Every structure is written in C-alpha cells, then in structure tokens.
UniProtKB/TrEMBL annotation:
Pfam families: MST (PF04978). This is DinB family protein. InterPro entries: DinB/YfiT-like, MST-like.
C-alpha cells in the first residue's frame, strides 16, 4: 500500500518561534522535505552517479539518512528491536569506513516509501515523549547509566540533515547545475 507523502514545509519555521519542540520538529521537517526536493527530477542514472572523491551517490545518501532516523529514534531512543540498524552499510554487519550501500534492485520509489514510513514512525516516537526524556536501554545504549536525551538526539539529527544537505547541494550542482532550493 502506497501512503501519501507527509506535508513537508518548503520554508524554514517562522523566526519568531520560541517553543523548542516546535522549532526542532519544524526544522527537521523542513530538512526532510528539502532532501526530497533536492533529489526530485534526478534520473535513476544520476541518482546512482558518484561525483565526489568519497564515492557516494545521491541515492546512497538518501538511504543513509533514512537509517540515521532509524538508528537514533527507533533503535536508539525507543529501544525498538531493529533487525538491521546499519542497513545503509549493506548486507551483514557494519564495518567502520564501509561505504553506504544501495542494491541495484532497490528503486528510488521504494526507498522513498521506506523513508516516509520511517519519518512517520520517528514523528510518533518524538510526539510521545518529553524533550528531556532519556533513551531506553537497548542495543544502542546497553548501559542504562549512559542514555542520550531526546533533545540531544533531535539536535544530532538536525545537524546530520544540514550537513548532508550541504553535500547534496554540491553534488546536485555538479550533476546538473541545479543550485540551492
């Protein structure tokens, strides 16, 4: 079943916003939508073309950001059992320095649906907890004395999106001269 896309805003949250939850939610949704907008219009060939020396492709970055959400919110904060939390690293266990992986038979549309489902679950987790709540003990945080707070995790996600969208800006400009949003 294909679900309708989330209503991601095309503009940053208002500059007079003072509520931390609204500000974090607003910026995360803005960056989630910016990710989709920056990938929009790229052919499958260009989605799978590496133009930077590090060798990653736009579709690999897209899958990586999906798994970033899974690792930090589902597996990390909520302590949910996630079969392959490092699924952006390819089959098997995660190896340090291993490049992001997208199988040849994985389509952008399938990954987009997976991303949207992941974001929906992320938003449910965030909505159900106060910002000062700490992560549940689990595989990501096995020591209950060293949990991460939800507000820290959300700031971390925000910087992941901002950093990688900057990378994607450069890649998109190199691929087809599209710049900015």
């Amino acid at each position: 079943m294909t679900m309708l896309p989330l209503p991601f805003p095309a503009a940053e949250p208002p500059d007079r916003l003072t509520d931390p939850r609204d500000l974090l939610d607003g910026y995360l949704d803005y960056y989630r939508g910016a990710l989709l907008r920056k990938l929009d219009g790229l052919s499958d060939e260009r989605l799978r073309t590496a133009v930077l020396p590090s060798g990653w492709t736009p579709i690999q970055l897209f899958k990586h950001l999906t798994y970033v959400e899974i690792r930090w919110l589902r597996w990390g904060f909520a302590g949910e059992a996630v079969e392959h939390p490092w699924g952006d690293r390819g089959p098997g266990e995660r190896s340090p320095g291993e490049p992001w992986h997208v199988a040849e038979d994985e389509t952008f549309e399938e990954l987009k649906e997976f991303f949207l489902d992941t974001v929906r679950r992320s938003k449910e987790i965030v909505a159900a907890a106060p910002l000062d709540a700490f992560s549940a003990p689990g595989p990501r945080y096995p020591n209950p004395d060293l949990p991460a707070s939800l507000i820290w995790i959300l700031f971390h996600l925000l910087q992941e999106y901002a950093r990688h969208l900057g990378h994607l800006d450069a890649v998109r400009e190199l691929l087809d001269h599209a710049a900015g949003e």
